Amino acid sequence: MDKKIKMAYYIILVILILLFFFPEDEFYQNIKIINNPNNLIVLVNKNNQLLRNYKPNDLEKINLEFANENKYLRKEAKIAFEKLAKDAKQLGYRIVAVSAYRDYDYQNELFNYYVKEKGLDYALECSAKPGHSEHQTGLAVDVEGENKDYDNFLDTKEFTWMKNNSYKYGFILRYPKGKEHITGFKFEPWHYRYVGIKIAKEIYEKNITLEEYLKSR
Ligand SMILES: [Zn+2]
Asked: Which among 24, 180, 188, 211 is annotated as catalytic?
């Protein structure tokens, strides 16, 4: 009996230590409204929200050679993305944008669709609440590769190429594996964010996230 009580104390102690080191995440808590939405390194995540009426004023359509239908990015990101996709194509890779700028209301519909179809937990894990999606900045793009299935982009040669080369064009893999506790999003091999070449290179070389980069400045 004594041994069992000791064991119970031990288990409780371990649980308390784990709770101390891994507290419940703070996502969607203490939300700040973003006051620099046009900044190329604007931070949009589960704690930083864009207003409903924010829409970039320099959106441009991606050349349909590199997008599955009409998709828009901010001018600088659009030029960089087309250059990336063109260079990739010359090397035998297929990089095609399947999602880029999304407005607040569309994100709202998307999030509610997931809630309705798959439940709140799923929606929270796989989507973002309106105002909390980077796609509203016009600086984020989801891509697909040779298998024409962005959800399985991880399995493509294009993913390996993007992971190692997208920074040269100013893009970062925004939600890397192992950084979920920092970004608040699960690993998304298909989602890239434009931040400019200099900062993308630093983030790539240091193997950090945009959150960590901004904190370290
Ligand atoms: Zn995305």
From this structure: 188
